[in-house]
Design goal:
Layout: E1 2-3, H1 14-26, H2 35-55, E2 62-65, H3 68-86, E3 94-100, H4 105-117, E4 122-126, H5 136-144, E5 149-153, H6 167-176, E6 180-184, E7 199-203, E8 214-218, H7 244-255, H8 263-275, E9 280-281, E10 292-296, H9 302-311, E11 314-315, H10 331-335, H11 340-343, E12 346-350, H12 357-378
Parallel strand pairs: 1-11, 3-4, 3-5, 5-6, 6-7
Antiparallel strand pairs: 2-8, 7-8, 9-10, 10-12
Helix pairs in contact: 1-7, 2-7, 3-4, 5-6, 8-12
Length: 379
């Protein structure tokens, strides 16, 4: 089996698995003051320190969540309500919400819901270039227009194409305008320098931790009101009994997250060009994550390719895992201006901590056979 879908989820690391098993055996509630509770609390705080180190943040800035989808929603709703609540103390409401057109659905959907819920907020999608990079000029123009504080959402790197976004440049523009910046950094750890922003979101299972674990990094002093009230967990910022196993496993994965090696991705793309000279590799001219290749085999529908590869034991995807089971046109490729016929052939291969050259070879054999069969049928 050749697993080439790390951007959807990475296989569980051994260190994370062992830590989860220890947490399962512990059985204490981290809010309890007895010995078992204190042991659970210690595991959570160790994980918080590991995730903070990975993110280049302080442990006090880390708020654990059930995943990046919750963290993105928590950031958007919490920031807007927090800005409202700050007004009596001299704060300023958020009146403009800018979201890049290639954001993850959890950002796009929550941003639309926030704009619908809070009166006076204007939602604006920021376009990207044909190679998948946000148009900074559009952001700069948007920040100059209108009144009130702006909140901008820009992912560190796109989960489908791997194209790295100019977060530092965007952060400078946002700061100069007195705005706030949310960065979805789910695909960043171990693959690029970690961004710093007012709100940063992470996911445990993308780096080999357990599914159902994530974090929101809250910079000290930013507007934030928790959308859900409860028992005061996570310093009152995210109510609900902590998922000890998920958090501990996330921390263990964060502690061993190593820099990615782009050689397998490069070998994979060289193989594609050899087998299919007219292969389309999206974002190839831009800085990309070294583990990600988004490509199209012209004339071969993505659904057909996925099924054929899967029968050979080669696992890729056709885009965001949140759309699994729904092979449809990618909103990312649509924003890049990719035609329907090419977008319909788009696949994504992504590598990670347990990938090997044998995975690339398995993909080479399977894709070669698929292309050969397609040519025979066409003839």
């Amino acid at each position: 089996m050749a697993y080439l879908d790390y951007n959807a989820t990475a296989p569980l690391r051994e260190a994370s698995k062992l830590t989860v098993m220890r947490a399962l055996a512990l059985g204490g509630n981290a809010s309890s003051v007895h010995a078992a509770g204190r042991s659970a609390r210690a595991m959570i705080e160790d994980a918080r320190s590991a995730v903070a180190t990975l993110a280049g943040a302080e442990p006090a800035e880390v708020v654990f969540t059930s995943g990046a989808t919750e963290a993105n929603g928590l950031a958007l709703w919490g920031a807007v309500q927090g800005a409202v609540d700050s007004v009596p103390k001299g704060g300023q409401r958020i009146t403009r919400l800018f979201v890049s057109a290639i954001e993850h659905p959890s950002v796009l959907a929550n941003a639309a819901a926030v704009a619908d819920r809070f009166a006076g907020i204007k939602l604006q999608a920021l376009p990207v270039t044909p190679s998948g990079v946000i148009a900074l000029g559009a952001l700069q123009d948007g920040l100059r227009e209108g009144k009130g504080r702006a909140l901008v959402a820009l992912m560190a790197a796109n989960n489908e194409t791997g194209v790295i976004q100019p977060v530092a440049d965007a952060a400078a523009l946002v700061a100069a305008a007195g705005g706030l910046l949310l960065v979805d950094a789910v695909q960043a750890p171990g693959r690029m320098p970690m961004p710093r922003a007012d709100y940063v979101t992470l996911s445990g299972h993308k780096i080999g931790g357990p599914q159902g674990s994530g974090a929101l990094i809250l910079r000290a002093g930013v507007p934030f009101t928790p959308p859900i009230a409860g028992g005061g967990q996570e310093r009152g910022l995210r109510a609900g009994t902590e998922n000890l196993c998920g958090i501990a496993g996330f921390g263990a994965a964060a502690a061993v997250c190593e820099p990615a090696d782009s050689r397998l991705r490069d070998r994979f793309e060289a193989m594609l060009r050899e087998i299919v000279p007219d292969v389309v590799i999206f974002g190839a001219a831009e800085a990309r994550l070294g583990n990600t290749s988004c490509f199209a085999l012209p004339g071969i529908a993505a659904e057909t390719a996925l099924m054929a590869l899967d029968l050979d034991g080669v696992m890729l995807s056709s885009g965001s895992a949140c759309s699994s089971g729904k092979v449809k046109r990618s909103h990312v490729l649509a924003a890049m201006g990719v035609s329907d016929d090419v977008a319909g052939c788009a696949l994504r291969a992504s590598f990670g901590w347990n990938s090997t050259a044998a995975d690339v070879e398995a993909a080479r054999v399977s894709i070669s056979n698929l292309v050969a069969r397609t040519k025979r049928v066409a003839a």
